[in-house]
Design brief:
single chain, 345 residues, alpha/beta, nine-stranded mixed sheet, binds calcium ion
């Protein structure tokens, strides 16, 4: 290599390093709080979207019981980060059970093994060689927010147990959290507001209604991705095919996990719950929002875990706070961004 060429290369490397440094400075710092399970589950697809998006800097992943046990969330998250070659992102174990919700006979027949004590099954390719960090998710959230006051967004895409416990543990924490992004709830006062766990309750909020009520009433700015808007999303074979047409370790995992499903039923289409919450954080212009007061029914009974939203406060909801509630999405633009990011090398 001639000297001028070598110099050009080193200047190129310098410019690239500078660009990466600037990007890291301007990227949104997030804590990814999740009831993770490997693809096709939505948390995994949302994490892949997040790690492939330079707009986000993931400070850590914190796990919680929800779709499955906290232990499974932890081992599956570690494995997906290993496949994505992002073992630099630390994983912290969070709450193993909701604050108060008891395992019932009914719960064990429904979606969600949040109540399970079973050891986690090996993820695809076996358990990751890296282990979770020492210390709890709650400690990590508190420490990280205190070290970066006003800068950290908590992307909470599972039951809100970890976030509520951190808020309860550390007085003054709420004022230092920049925003909480929540996938959860179904708002009956907006179109398409039925629940998916009980007639009116959405799964994440229903698993830990007491935690959700604490978080919604905390005063932290909240962006909410409820079922009303996720029902406008569909991950179909058309988009799966575009993803697996590109060969990376991540797309190979998606092919391994989702290929047999689409082979059995090419017409299947799943909602993109957590993916949309992360997508709207990356690009808020993808969604339309309305400011609503949000409160959660935390009394056991037929409405346990129902998320209620209204334009004005109502009797019984005194003290509830407003959240920015998503009710519509430019799905075409969102899915193209999703496929573009997930297929990045
Ligand atoms: Ca989730």
């Amino acid at each position: 290599m001639s000297l001028p060429l070598a110099r050009a290369f080193s200047i190129g490397a310098f410019v690239l390093a500078l660009a990466q440094a600037v990007e890291a400075q301007t990227a949104q710092k997030i804590i990814f709080d999740t009831d993770f399970v490997v693809p096709p589950q939505d948390d995994a697809m949302a994490l892949i979207l997040a790690v492939k998006s330079p707009e986000l800097q993931i400070l850590g992943v914190t796990t919680v019981a929800g779709n499955d046990s906290m232990e499974r969330a932890t081992s599956d998250a570690l494995r997906v980060l290993e496949i994505a070659a992002r073992t630099d992102i630390p994983v912290y174990k969070g709450a193993n059970l909701p604050m108060r919700h008891e395992k019932t006979e009914w719960a064990t027949t429904m979606h969600g093994r949040w109540w399970s004590d079973d050891p986690p099954p090996p993820p695809p390719g076996g358990f990751a060689s890296k282990h979770p960090e020492a210390g709890t998710a709650m400690d990590f959230i508190i420490r990280t927010v205190n070290a970066n006051p006003g800068q950290v967004v908590i992307a909470a895409i599972g039951p809100l147990t970890n976030v509520a416990m951190a808020l309860r543990y550390e007085p003054g924490l709420a004022a230092k959290i920049k925003r909480i992004v929540i996938m959860g709830g179904a708002i009956a006062s907006l179109p398409d507001g039925a629940g998916n766990m009980t007639p009116n309750a959405e799964f994440n909020i229903w698993v830990d209604p007491e935690a959700a009520r604490i978080v919604f009433r905390s005063g932290v700015p909240i962006s909410l991705t409820p079922l009303n808007v996720t029902r406008k999303t569909k991950f179909s074979k058309e988009w799966y095919d575009k993803i697996v047409a590109v060969d990376t370790p991540i797309t190979a995992l998606i092919k391994d996990r989702m290929g047999p499903m689409f082979a059995r039923d090419p017409t299947r289409a799943g909602q993109m719950y957590d993916q949309l919450a992360i997508g709207a954080l990356i690009d808020p212009t993808l969604v339309k929002t309305v400011e609503l007061y949000i409160d959660v029914e935390d009394h056991p009974g037929p409405s346990y875990g129902v998320t209620v939203g209204g334009p004005k406060l109502w009797e019984g909801a005194e003290g509830a706070r407003q959240a920015s509630v998503q009710y519509d999405v430019d799905f075409d633009r969102f899915i193209r961004m999703f496929v573009d990011r997930v297929t990045r090398k």
